[in-house]
Amino acid sequence: MLGLKKADLRLFLIVVGLVVFAPFLLNPFPESVGMAQFNAGYPDLMQKLVIFGIFAVGYNILFGLTGYLSFGHAAFLGVGSYSGVWMMKLLTMNVIPALIVSVIAAGLFSLLIGYVSLRRTGIYFSILTLAFAQMCYSLAYSVLTPITGGETGLTLSLSDPRILGAAQAADGNIPAAHIFGLGMGESAELVLGDWSFTFNVGYYLSGIVMLVAFYLAIRLFRSPFGLMLRAIKSNQTRMSYTGLNPRPYALAAFVISGMYAGLAGGLMVAMDPLAGAERMLWTASGEVVLMTILGGAGTLIGPILGAGVIVYLESIISTINSSVLHGWFNALPDWLENTLVNIMYPFVGSGWHLTLGLVFMLVVIFLPGGIVEGGKRIAGVFKRNRAEPSGDIKKSAEPGE
Amino acid sequence: MEAIILQILNGLDKGSAYALIALGLTLIFGTLGVVNFAHGALFMMGAFVAVTLKRVLSISFDTIDETRIDFLGNPMVVSTPYVEVWFGPSVGGTIIDWAVPLAVIVAIPIMALIGIIMERGLIRHFYKRPHADQILVTFGLAIVLQEIIKAFYGANPIPTPSPEAFIGSYDFGVLLGFDPFSIMYPYWRLVYFGFAAVIIGAVFAFLRFTTFGMVVRAGMEDREMVGLLGIDIDRRFVIMFAIAAVVAGLAGVMYAPILSPNYHMGMDFLVLSFVVVVVGGMGSLPGAVAAGFLLGVLQSFASMSEIIELVPGINQVVIYLVAVIVLLIRPRGLLGRKGVMED
Amino acid sequence: MGILEVKGLNKRFGGLQALGDVNLEVQESTCHAIIGPNGAGKSTLLNCLVGKLMPDSGTVMFQGKDVLGCKPHEINQMGISRVFQTPEIFADQTVLENVLIPCFAGRDGSFRMRAFESIGSEVDIISQAEEMLREVGMHKKTDMLAGSLSRGDKRRLEMAMSLVQQPKLLLLDEPTAGMSRADTNNTIGLLKEIRTSRNITMAIIEHDMHVVFSLADVITVLAQGKILVEDIPENIKGHPKVREAYLGDAEV
């Protein structure tokens, strides 16, 4: 079905299920319980989860398959965001044209940067992409202010010359982004006893877009093209002596992943029509690298898992403050409570980045294959215990994934 | 003419910092083969050694001076640093005033220790891993280090002035026969340039004239051969890493009066220093130094208002632009050697 | 006219004349060996043929087409396939995938984006690859990671990757370097088999005289960048110039 192999189809359907039922799955705790702060079933966060999922899935096509470590992908996300806002300013608040233009703009832009950067490999490539991204960031902040809004960022205003659609909504406000009349911010609530679940239009639009993006990525992974990209990572010399030209393959992967980034940027502004230069900062690029690696670079599901974990942890951990911590350890003796709070405090709230950095290091040091490899190892331990209690016969073949 | 000289001078202090950081990066890369993204953090930590020393020296106790009255009409609280009590007001005052230069002495063991811990605890395990892994793990370390500093010192820049004796500017205009006040250059920047020159000279002399340095240089040329000679390269790696850490740290200490230390200054300088290393040629020490000064001066030229009028925004991007052009025309960098990081 | 014609090839590295006026003609369906002591310029010559090095002067014509200045992948697409001294394979891919890659290269050219077709549905290509693997005796290892193969199997795999492209000319760069006697004999057997079954033109660079005399129809002796003699194996064996070149080499 859908042109996928059985295992891939199962994986895809699981992701479909997760996306569809996320409003339930992410809200496991009733409102009144203290654990409710771990709920993630609110629209903002769910949108962010799937949007970064798209970003990471796209990045994985470049880094996971070809091994080219780009530090510039945030620039493409930024370009996507800016073009999305401009479409809303100039054309219509319908998000479809904005998304299309975001993807195209980011694609063209990544073609340009990729063409130059891919003349080099290895660390030189990384530094070239880094240099380009920093250049874009600096320019967006300074000279390009008329296009990018500079420090304040690019926002909609009441005087936008929107060709298809009004400059002002009926209530005198800036009109809201919508898809054929259905507002991105509109939600349906379902209250079941102590639980309340939110079904948001913007989230489901992003979710559908992500599923399409993920589906295309699976197809790409299983295609001859995907095999060539893997060959680049494996042995570029061999590749050229096999009659294949690695550069256009790498460039195609670069542009595709740039388009994914643009799509993510377009969706971000579709959810919240605001684009700022800080989205292009190289630490933002670092974040998507981390998501991909944390989940498992080169695997299908890895980037989605990684993006999910990082976005979730970020939003949850950064809201924890000392009173929340005290609340947790209330039952403990005072001295123990205070010690635990003091130990944990630097890692939560505004200390989120410290946690992020530590996670980053731990993953690279101990689990270079990411969550997916971790899962495999655990599964392997169980399997061995069951099937081969006595021997440590190593299975030499580990086909594909 | 005056304007040109002024821009060259202005570029020197930033160029010095780039050169010092790039020197350490190149040393680490050349000897250990590791791409260290946490090197900027070492520079930043050096600057915070200066901040910390200034704070430690200024630790005071409060006394109430009944003879004076503050603006609320209460007896005035006077805080006296312990240093002034121990050494007398004038010597103590001087010590506090000279906190930044003194921090150089303190920073050497501290930075060396940090370097050794970093190498033994983390970097060592990454010698045989792919460059991508090295980049990523040191990138993570850089985030951790800067967040730790942020947790202790807050997010705002902390002004850390130079000793009073170096406040003010030197009039190069008179010296060079131009109008007075046409070329004013702050004393501390001169000091910084001189300091950087001394350190660079010391590192080069160390590599050239000691047996240790000769082994290290041989190792940069051909690691395998040095390994075959049965030389314990491991111990030398630690020392090289410590030296690189000290160089970056000292660059940071002395930079504190020029740029008020903040937690993200390491990252800001790191990106630029990497560009410097690449432009200079990965693995080439003279290349790193030359490119550091070159790009520093270029950047300051690009910041001239006449140039900005001509090409808006050029001051923001000139370094990156140069890097892109150099990499495309001379893939190995200006003074790069064949065979370094070709793949 | 030979399938490969090299005329007046010169290449200097600084002060060293690596190749001096090298003329060479490889006839179709023969096995042409190029031998010579260390530093004779054999590898330089080979690298000029496959597009890795650019000679200072001279021409290299393959089937009447100029090869010089072409990229390695373009030269491969013309029908010249190279086997490396140490087997170059795609270590992270399975054995089958390793052979699929040249199959796709043969059908789709040096670049084609087939991003939405599934590899699984390329039945023809897969059976072509499997057949090739059977021919070199690797069909039981198709799902193994290529990187985990033994050295001998890697050599077989690399040979399969070259042969599946049905090259018009196979360049072998010391295919038995560093191999045990048994492995060497295996490789000779494999190459002989290929010659009889496929009739492929081969140019082989080799150090090991045993290999050369078992395979070659024509031998060119290279010394210090120049061609010393070119003749059939029987005449090369006792040739005084060849002996001199090798003995001279041995004394150094």
Walkthrough of the structure:
The complex is a heterotrimer of chains A (401), B (343) and C (252). Chain A is mainly α. Chain A has helices spanning 6-25, 43-66, 73-90, 95-117, 122-141, 145-148, 201-221, 224-234, 236-240, 246-271, 282-295, 302-317, 322-328, 334-344, 352-366, 370-387, and strands at 154-155, 178-179, 182-183, 187-192, 195-200, 274-275. Chain A has a two-stranded antiparallel ribbon. In chain A, strands 2-3 form a two-stranded antiparallel sheet. Chain A is globular. Mean pLDDT of chain A is 87; it is low at 389-401. Helix content of chain B is 68%, strand content 7%. Chain B has 15 helices and 4 strands. In chain B, a hairpin with a 5-residue loop joins strand 1 (60-69) and strand 2 (75-81). Residues 339-343 of chain B have low confidence and may be disordered. Chain C is of the alpha/beta class and 252 residues long. In chain C, helix 3 (95-108) packs across helix 4. The longest helix of chain C is centred in the last third of the chain and has 18 residues, at 181-198. The model of chain C has no long low-confidence stretch (mean pLDDT 86). Chains in contact: A-B, A-C. Chains A and B meet through helix 5, helix 11 and helix 15 of A and helix 6, helix 12 and helix 15 of B.
Helices and strands, with pairings:
The complex is a heterotrimer of chains A (401), B (343) and C (252).
Chain A: H1 6-25, H2 43-66, H3 73-90, H4 95-117, H5 122-141, H6 145-148, E1 154-155, E2 178-179, E3 182-183, E4 187-192, E5 195-200, H7 201-221, H8 224-234, H9 236-240, H10 246-271, E6 274-275, H11 282-295, H12 302-317, H13 322-328, H14 334-344, H15 352-366, H16 370-387
Antiparallel strand pairs in A: 1-6, 2-3, 4-5
Helix pairs in contact in A: 1-7, 2-7, 2-8, 2-10, 2-11, 2-12, 3-4, 3-10, 4-5, 4-10, 7-10, 8-10, 11-12
Chain B: H1 2-32, H2 39-57, E1 60-69, E2 75-81, H3 82-87, H4 89-97, H5 99-121, H6 131-153, E3 169-171, H7 172-175, E4 184-186, H8 187-209, H9 211-221, H10 223-228, H11 233-255, H12 265-280, H13 285-302, H14 305-310, H15 314-329
Antiparallel strand pairs in B: 1-2, 3-4
Chain C: E1 4-13, E2 16-26, E3 31-35, H1 42-49, E4 57-62, E5 65-66, H2 72-78, E6 80-83, H3 95-108, H4 123-135, H5 151-163, E7 169-173, H6 181-198, E8 201-205, H7 209-215, E9 218-223, E10 226-231, H8 233-237, H9 240-251
Parallel strand pairs in C: 3-8, 3-9, 6-7, 7-8
Antiparallel strand pairs in C: 1-2, 1-4, 4-5, 9-10
Helix pairs in contact in C: 3-4, 3-5
